[in-house]
Specification:
It is a single chain. The protein is built from five helices and eleven strands. The chain has 309 residues and is an alpha+beta fold. Among the domains are: 80 residues; 94 residues, no CATH class. Strands 7, 8, 9, 10 and 11 form a five-stranded antiparallel beta sheet that branches. Strands 1-4-5-6 form a four-stranded antiparallel beta sheet, with no helix packed on it. Strand 10 and strand 11 form a beta hairpin. It starts with a helix and ends in an 8-residue tail after the last strand.
């Protein structure tokens, strides 16, 4: 009896030890008593799958698009260069040919219509704008197209009167009348006559060569000056037709010879003041006669340097 009791206790201890090993220490695949059911395994697997499915997904960084390829170069043929315009060749002129006088335009002669000589007035003009004339006894309005008398140009304004003897006056812009048009027409006609007169004078000039004498120049080529202030060499040049615009009668003042330069050569320069006749009267201007090696090389306008015809 005692032996059975001891055997039972021994079996009980060994069974408890086996169960403890099977529960706590045995690997899951070696467990014999405490094996995990298939449903539990599947639920565990499903839980792991749920955990995996609920795990936040890391967004994938989109790959940058490749840069666009540059357009292939297109060869463009250059436009053909335009053919150069033919250069007009001025006809050769003889040094002895007639040179027309370099007369100013009407705008130059009137300083752009700000200076009209008194010799151009009185002159009849037509109104292109209505003008009011004032007098001590009252005022009167004259309509467009009325003929009135231009008396003078003062401070840039044209002084008008209804008639040459009327006391009423009006000061207006020159553009209120047709004065510009009438003076331009008359001035251009005068220029043509003046050029034709110069052409005739040149044609009838003394063609004999200018002979320089000892009384006209000194040993160093300096032009001699007469007792009356004139230069015999320059007077001979005028008679020979070297210059037609300057005449002995138009000269108002003779200058004294001074040293200068002409075309890179030393020369003597004599300034001559003279009156140039124009449609608006006489204008005082200055010409320079240049003498090289005892001979008159030419006449030139002071300032511009253009040759005097």
């Amino acid at each position: 009896m005692q032996t059975l009791k001891s055997l039972f206790i021994t079996v009980l201890v060994l069974g408890g030890a086996f169960l403890a090993y099977d529960y706590f220490l045995a690997p899951p695949e070696d467990k014999m008593v405490f094996k995990q059911p298939a449903a539990a395994k599947s639920s565990e697997t499903g839980a792991q799958a749920n955990v995996a499915s609920t795990a936040p997904t890391v967004p994938q960084t989109p790959q940058a698009a490749p840069p666009p390829q540059p357009p292939a170069p297109v060869s463009v043929a250059p436009a053909p260069m335009p053919a150069p315009a033919p250069v007009a060749v001025a006809p050769a002129t003889s040094p002895d040919a007639f040179t027309p006088p370099a007369l100013p335009t009407v705008e130059q002669a009137t300083a752009n219509w700000t200076r009209i000589p008194a010799s151009a007035f009185p002159r009849q003009v037509k109104l292109v704008l209505p003008v009011a004339f004032k007098a001590s006894y009252g005022s009167t309005q004259m309509p467009v197209g009325s003929e009135v008398t231009a008396l003078s140009l003062e401070n840039g304004l044209l002084v008008l009167a209804p008639t040459p003897t009327a006391a009423a006056r009006a000061s207006v812009s020159i553009n209120s009348t047709d004065l510009k048009g009438t003076l331009t027409t008359a001035y251009n006609a005068w220029r043509e006559r003046r050029i034709e007169e110069a052409r005739i004078a040149w044609k009838n000039r003394d063609r004999s060569p200018v002979v320089t004498t000892a009384s006209q120049v000194s040993a160093d080529g300096k032009p001699a000056v007469s007792a009356d202030g004139t230069c015999p060499l320059l007077l001979a040049s005028m008679r020979a037709g070297m210059v037609t615009e300057v005449t002995p009668n138009s000269i108002t003042r003779w200058g004294t010879p001074e040293q200068g330069e002409h075309n890179g050569k030393p020369c003597w320069v004599v300034a001559v003041e003279y009156d140039a006749q124009t449609l608006f009267g006489k204008f005082s201007t200055t010409a320079l006669a240049k003498v090289v090696d005892g001979r008159v090389a030419g006449w030139f306008y002071k300032g511009s340097g253009e040759q005097v015809p």
